[in-house]
Structure formats: C-alpha cells, structure tokens
Structure to design on (202 residues):
C-alpha cells in the first residue's frame, strides 16, 4: 500500500469530487487522469458516492480515495468500496484510531495548532488544512507550519486555479485540494480534462 506522503506527491492538485450519477464516474476519472491528475477524492456527500469510488477505481492510473469520512463507519464503508486513501474534514481521536488501525493512508483535516498536536499524538504528520482560506489562508498556515517543522499540508477549501501556485510554492505544502475541476452534473469531459491539464502544471 502506498503511503499518504507518496500520494501527496503524485500531483499538485487533488480534485475534490461531488458526483451523484454513477454513469459519470468513469468518464470523469478518465478525463482527470488523462489531464495529469491521478489522485481523486470522492466525497461521501452523495448517496452514490461509494458506488462511484468502486467505478472510478477501475480506471487505469486512477488512485481513488474517499473524502468527507466522518467516523469509523464511513471509514469501513469507504475501504469496502475500494478507496485507497481517506480524507476527513477534521480530526477526531475515534477516526484517527480506526484509520491507523486499518493501515489505509489517512489525511485528516486540521484548522489549528491543537488539531495538529492531537494528530501528532497519533503519530500523524500529514494533514489537510481545512477550510484553507476561511481559516486564515496562507498567513495562518505559515504561522502554523513554523512550530511544527515535520508537518506537511494539503490545503483545501477556497483554493482556485489562480491561487493554487502561491500555496504550492511553500515548502510545507505538498499539494492542494479543490473542487474547481468538476461541478456536479457537468458532462463536458474534454473541458474537465483541459482544466486538469492546467492544474497539473507546476
Ligand atoms: O467534503 C469534505 O470532506 C470537505 O472537507 C470539503 C471539501 O474539501 C471542500 O469543500 C473543497 O473546497 P472547495 O474547493 O472550496 O469547494
């Protein structure tokens, strides 16, 4: 199993996907992978999300994870569907224990120093900063990164194609997450692929 550090290095942007039509899963994943973004976060925000993870996982080159994982039950369901990594908006001890015990790569959300310290208590050093812009943006992350030299981040929430580069220029930022690559319901796969291509350029 590849670890979370490796997954964070595979592409500069992790598309955060809200998908409700299973028929869209494969063409969407194919477009994103073809555009150079192989790491895909499917949020558990739609009833079909688990089925969509299973479909996307069949796409060659795609590394499909589950987002919006809130508790051990979500974790178990995501793993059963074939998720290869887990993202959560926040960090609870209950989820951290279950995720670490499962062995699946885990990227928990943090928004402050106490969250990072709680993660470090569990041996975690890779975090999603969420919501990145609303919780203070780059100045906040710079301030947080200073005392936690071993921590590396995937800021997500409010980041766009235009603002991704300034985040990615920071040594403590390994990748960013964002929903701008795909809007639920759209089916212009060529357009999605060209957005992915733009995002994949470092
Ligand atoms: O669903 C989750 O688990 C989340 O944590 C939220 C998403 O990561 C953000 O909603 C993406 O942010 P935007 O790119 O600003 O849309």
């Amino acid at each position: 199993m590849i670890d979370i550090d490796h997954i964070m290095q595979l592409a500069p942007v992790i598309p955060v996907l809200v998908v409700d039509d299973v028929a869209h899963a494969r063409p969407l994943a194919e477009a994103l992978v073809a555009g150079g973004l192989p790491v895909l976060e499917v949020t558990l925000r739609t009833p079909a999300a688990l089925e969509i993870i299973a479909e996307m996982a069949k796409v060659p080159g795609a590394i499909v994870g589950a987002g919006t994982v809130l508790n051990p039950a979500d974790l178990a369901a995501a793993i059963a569907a074939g998720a290869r990594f887990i993202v959560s908006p926040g960090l609870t001890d209950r989820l951290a224990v279950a995720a670490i015990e499962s062995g699946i790569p885990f990227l928990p959300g943090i928004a402050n120093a106490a969250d990072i310290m709680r993660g470090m208590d569990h041996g975690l050093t890779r975090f999603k900063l969420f919501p990145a812009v609303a919780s203070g943006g780059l100045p906040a992350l710079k301030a947080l990164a200073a005392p936690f030299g071993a921590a590396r981040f995937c800021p997500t929430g409010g980041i766009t194609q235009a603002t991704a580069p300034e985040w990615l220029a920071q040594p403590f930022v390994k990748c960013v997450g964002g929903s701008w690559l795909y809007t639920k319901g759209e089916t212009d796969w060529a357009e999605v692929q060209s957005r992915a291509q733009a995002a994949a350029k470092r």
Q: What stands out?
A: The chain has one domain: 4-200.
